[in-house]
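Researcher: Here's a chain I'd like modeled. Treat it as a single chain, no partners, no ligands.
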Amino acid sequence: MDDSGAILCHISSLKDMLDQVNEEIEANIQVTREIESEIVRCTEFEAALAAKESDLTKSLHLSNFDLNSLLSVANDSRKSVELLEEELCCLRNKREETLKRMNDKREQFTVKCVEFQREIDKAENDEVVKLLAERDFLENEISLLEQKNHSLQNSMVAFIEEVLQDLHESNSALDVEIRNGNHENEKLLKDIDDLKTTLLSSFHHC
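Model: Modeled as a single isolated chain. Structure tokens:
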């Protein structure tokens, strides 16, 4: 009878141990399921981060392309401004040379007119009157030509200065766009670095 009780007690003890082992197995199975679920979640998160990184990389390439285009346009505009400034300088020099030649010719003409006037004082005739009329006509023509030339030169200078001003303003706008593009690129690079940091952090947690 004592042996039966001992056997039953031992069986009960073994059953308790088996129940404890089964509980631990169930707990381990539950932990395994949670780990598998966490692995799936990490995998999905990794895929989402990779897609986001791909989108940001594409945006960065597009921004770099736009920035390079803006830089090319800015360089072309600067070259155009330099050429126009050179042409404007040449036009100014030519205008000064033209005015100098006209002044020299005017002085020569005045000297000749004075000399001719002296001759008229000695002997006036119809030919002299005709020559004086021609002189007056030529002086008027020269004055009109000078006025037209001066107006034309002023118009050309004003037009070129206006074009230069527009180009300077365009260059200023392009510089602003370039600075904005650089800022966007820096922001995209920071976002990519943040994503990489987050991805590495999630891998370490997994």
